[in-house]
Amino acid sequence: MKLRAEDVLANGTSRHKLQIDMERQIQIAKDLLAQKKFLEAAKRCQQTLDSLPKDGLLPDPELFTIFAQAVYNMEVQNSGNLFGDALLAGDDGSGSESESEPESDVSNGEEGNENGQTEIPNSRMFQFDQEEEDLTGDVDSGDSEDSGEGSEEEEENVEKEEERLALHELANFSPANEYDDEIEDVSQLRKSGFHIYFENDLYENALDLLAQALMLLGRPTADGQSLTENSRLRIGDVYILMGDIEREAEMFSRAIHHYLKGLGYYKTLKPAEQVTEKVIQAEFLVCDALRWVDQVPAKDKLKRFKHAKALLEKHMTTRPKDSELQQARLAQIQDDIDEVQENQQHGSKRPLSQPTTSIGFPALEKPLGDFNDLSQLVKKKPRRH
């Protein structure tokens, strides 16, 4: 049955109205996010997504990123984690905004943090240098009559080597050369029931929302098309945001994984000041998360820290306007270098369960500019309908 001309015109007009309304709702949600009204921003996104027709206009990916940032910051406010204090730049700690966020059904983030700490997944990660090195060089090789200790050392060395190989694989990742297997097909996109993202673990919910943003952003590749510069920039931004959430939840290996994926996308972009800033930030974030991952050998950490230090020093000679921020980052990386070298001689003194806040993290309540792969990394994904 052929559609009449007036029906086609009516459909086009309806889609146009939906698009305009969606853009208006996105702007309202952005404003609420900037005001730290996280619950209101999240509800605005949820209601907009639930109101869209199930067969027709696809959501704007930015709805998912704003939604993710909002529910993430709701969890940060509830948990009061140290990293959250660093991410919520400008927050005086008074908690005045909590009056508008009475949620009591969110889960306690501490349980997830313990899991992220003690069960670091063997995901693809990063190794800066390609050369083979002796992994046992940093291990005390004194003769021991206790066969149990020897067995533990062997297991530790095997684990470190697996981590090194995984890191090396991700270090060479580039979306220009290989398929990004973390971006699911858009057919997996949730169509309704977005209220579930206010329940259970909000960190995992935020990551799942970002995974759906990536489905939409990576859709051209499923059709055999290349991603535009803007799409690659936006995908890189989403990966960095995923890393920030995982770092907050003390899932440091996963955070490094996504920081490096974001970095891989940034490196495919044409040189520009904005791109350089994003590359520098991503390199710094990798280092900040890397210091907490015990499975990565000290030699590899040291190389990465020195690499980032050299980049920062070079950047500061050409971009003096933000030298204060870069000086703070540089000082922190130098502290990391000193600590690794000290630990190589005397052993680690800093407990992993007590991370310090760090310099120069993006405030996650700030909406992404233009706009902006998860899929497998979320343990308990809400089921999509």
UniProtKB/TrEMBL annotation:
It comes from Saccharomyces cerevisiae (strain YJM789). This is Hat1 interacting factor. Residues 129-160 have a biased composition (Acidic residues). Residues 342-359 have a biased composition (Polar residues). InterPro entries: TPR-like_helical_dom_sf. Signal peptide: none annotated. Residues 85-97, 105-116 have a biased composition (Low complexity). It comes from the Eukaryota. Residues 85-163, 340-385 are annotated as: Disordered.
